[in-house]
Amino acid sequence: MNPIHVIGGGLAGSEAAWQVARQGIPVVIHEMRPVRKTDAHQGEGLAELVCSNSFRSDDSEQNAVGLLHHELRRSGSLIMSCADANQVPAGSALAVDRNGFSDAVTKALEDHPLITVTREEISGLPPEDWDSVIVATGPLTSPALSEAVLERCGEDALAFFDAIAPIVHFESVDLSKAWFQSRYDKVGPGGTGKDYLNCPMDKEQYDAFIDALIEGDTTDFKEWEENTPYFDGCLPIEVMAARGRETLRHGPMKPMGLTNAHNPDVKAYAVVQLRQDNALGTLYNMVGFQTKLKYGAQGDIFKMIPGLENAQFARLGGLHRNTFLNSPKVLDGSLRLKAEPRLRFAGQITGCEGYVESASVGCMTGLFAAKERLGQSFESPPETTAMGALLGHITGGHIARETEQGSPRSFQPMNVNFGLFPPIEAPKTDADGKRLKGKDKTRAKKGAMTQRAKQDFEGWILAFEPPQAAE
Ligand code: FAD
């Protein structure tokens, strides 16, 4: 049988290769380290963790990433079995000894009779006789390959810089302070004139907010990011604030064309706008609020915004180098490049974010490629599961967002979170019939979502049980 080729032996590529081999199909992994290095990896092991050693929460009842852990384990994941075997104490999080973890992944792949690991850079589109290829080259994909993909798919296929505005869970916004209205009540295509959530500030609140932004701790640019300039119109808010106290009030925080529905007679001095971020309406992004502020500072400063005092963030803002595809446009539902279906993509390059998410997309891509090679039909995981929710984000579940320049390119990488899941009717009362409120209500809802996910995942993954002999 012809092998499936996997380019990149990171979190996603390692998991993808493992899943393909589990189905009894030969795999060749092409990893460019140590022949060619990246700016973040230090060694030559497969599945190297470039920064933190944490896989985040292992709680599969109340946490979306914990649920991904569960689904990966249920899929026979190599990344999870090596993480479990190399765990270090970290409370309810799953943290690992990074060298032990990478060594274990490398050994398992190198020892597998169906897997060959070659150390070479693939510096253009793969040879035409490779009829099934998984590209898992990550956020630091080598330029020769990313340029070839760009050439194949067109100008807006790839982004090289991640400018992320924070994203808030809608249910945590205080609607007694915020109100729905589009600027000048403008009705755009598919709009209602009430498409934005607006948070008003008076002068005193604005001044305090600007002071906090200017004084807030920012993350340092990595040496290799310093040469990547800010895009025009995509400046971090703290940089805008430092350029002049009124700059934000004339930019993303301008109050024009908006009337406070809760207090129509008082004109807001400045307004923070939030825009719907997913089709379900469970997530809203803070328009124009890309930032290099440290996560702790973001949490403190953004809670100064009236209406966001109790905001829960699905993701915080950021600005860093990151190569990722405009996946909703260029990939199909099973992660194949529409322009060249022999190429499938996996990992962070598809527009997920994080070690566990990258491994999960690797897992799905490996399973899909294997089924295709075996000539068997297959289905994507249901959108009620964590993998399905992530796949929905990548391949188009998200509504298009606009950049600061108003261009339609807007897909941004994201961690898994409950805002990506379809809503659920959660229990309204506890076992004693007492009405659930506040944190108890949220717990009940998350519990119902994870229960539904586990049940639906179980129904889906059975179709991918490996043949006995290949295990
Ligand atoms: P990678 O793990 O980067 O694997 C890609 C592999 O492809 C690499 O081994 C690379 O050498 C190889 N490669 C690239 N180009 C080629 C080529 N042309 N030919 C052959 N091989 C090639 N996520 C977290 O959850 N926690 C964190 O703390 C965290 N910190 C991060 C810090 C930095 C600096 C960066 C860039 C990302 C970070 N991430 C973090 C995000 C992300 O989860 C990781 O980058 C993750 O490793 C992505 O997995 P991947 O498999 O897609 O890519």
Quick structural summary:
By secondary structure, the chain is of the alpha+beta class. The protein contains twelve helices and 17 strands.
Structure description:
Helix 1 (11-22) packs parallel to helix 10, helix 2 packs parallel to helix 12 and helix 3 (78-85) crosses helix 4. This protein is globular. It is α+β, with helices and mostly antiparallel strands and 471 residues long. A six-stranded mixed β-sheet has the order 6-2-1-7-17-16, with helices on one face. A six-stranded antiparallel β-sheet has the order 10-11-12-13-9-14. The protein contains twelve helices and 17 strands. Mean pLDDT is 89; it is low at 398-409. Flavin-adenine dinucleotide is lined by residues 7-13, 30-33, 38, 40-41, 50-52, 121-122, 136-142, 145, 347-349, 354-355, 358.
- The total strand number stands at 17
Counting DSSP H or I runs of 4 or more residues, the number of helices is 12
Radius of gyration: 23 Å
- Amount of helix: 25-40%
Q: Structural class, from helix and strand content?
A: alpha+beta
Stretches where pLDDT falls below 50 for ≥5 residues? 398-409
What fraction strand?
15-25%
Q: What's the average pLDDT?
A: 89
Shape: globular
Strand order of the largest sheet: 6-2-1-7-17-16
The helix/strand series, from N terminus to C terminus, equals EHEEHHEEHEEHEEEEHHEEHEEHEEHHH
Bound molecules: flavin-adenine dinucleotide
Largest sheet: 6 strands, mixed
Oligomer: single chain
- The end-to-end span amounts to 17 Å
